[in-house]
Amino acid sequence: MNFIDFMERFKTEQDCQDHFFKIRWPNGFKCPKCGHEEYFFLKGRHHYECCHCGHQTSLTAGTVMHGSHTGLREWFLVIYLFTHDKRGISATQIARTVGISYFTAWLMLHKLRKAMGDRDAKYYLDGIIEMDDAFFGAPDEGGKRGRGTNKTPAIIELSLNEEGQPEHLKIQVVDTVDGATIIEVAKETLKPGATIQTDGLSSYNEPPIPTPANSPSP
């Protein structure tokens, strides 16, 4: 969705609330406590009250937007800008573009990054995985290049679909690239039965990696 289409679709706060309602309750409201479907809206508090048990819930309960004094339209716009700028976007730029304070912009970005990080931490790669190491940062003057450098090492895992095209990527900073570290990273990030492809470095020539039996699906 380009920016013009986005602004046209979410012109008002009500547009955002209606869209969010459909995402949260695609088959109509259902009380999170008793499952009853009849409710009435408490306009002053922006809560939905179940007609059966009286439980009240807000549209944003359980999300990064819950308890925020910032409107959904501003949240939607910040999320759009944050996810569409591949170079990254600063709190200063967000504040200027959306018309909110720097602290509000910084807090919103912090919550979004944490939510995305928490989700990625629970995501297990599956299928064919290309696994390799990389090194980030500038080496000391006269330092080695490649493996053996004093730059920051990381393990990179890329899952491929049946056509061999990239699907999902995980990058994890590590202290060192050795067999024990590689096994630990794989146990934390791969589903049982995943096939690992590497460049043949001896560190990868370890016994089969014992992945958890109850690893969640992506």
3D architecture notes:
The chain is an alpha+beta fold and 218 residues long. The protein has two domains: 3-121, no CATH class; 128-204, no CATH class. Helix content is 33%, strand content 18%. It is built from six helices and seven strands. It has helices spanning 3-9, 13-24, 72-84, 91-98, 102-121, 179-189; strands at residues 39-42, 47-50, 56-58, 128-136, 152-160, 166-173, 195-197. The strands form two sheets. Strands 6-5-4-7 form a four-stranded mixed beta sheet, with helices on one face. The chain has a three-stranded antiparallel beta sheet with strand order 1-2-3, with no helix packed on it. Strand 5 and strand 6 (166-173) form a beta hairpin. Helix 4 packs across helix 5. The longest helix has 20 residues, at 102-121. The protein is extended.
Topology:
Layout lengths: L2 H7 L3 H12 L14 E4 L4 E4 L5 E3 L13 H13 L6 H8 L3 H20 L6 E9 L15 E9 L5 E8 L5 H11 L5 E3 L21
Parallel strand pairs: 4-7
Antiparallel strand pairs: 1-2, 2-3, 4-5, 5-6
Helix pairs in contact: 3-5, 4-5
User: How would you write the strand order of the largest sheet?
Assistant: 6-5-4-7
Number of H/I helices = 6
Helix/strand structural class: alpha+beta
Series of secondary-structure elements, N-terminal to C-terminal: HHEEEHHHEEEHE
The overall pLDDT, averaged over residues, is 86
N/C terminus separation: 25 Å
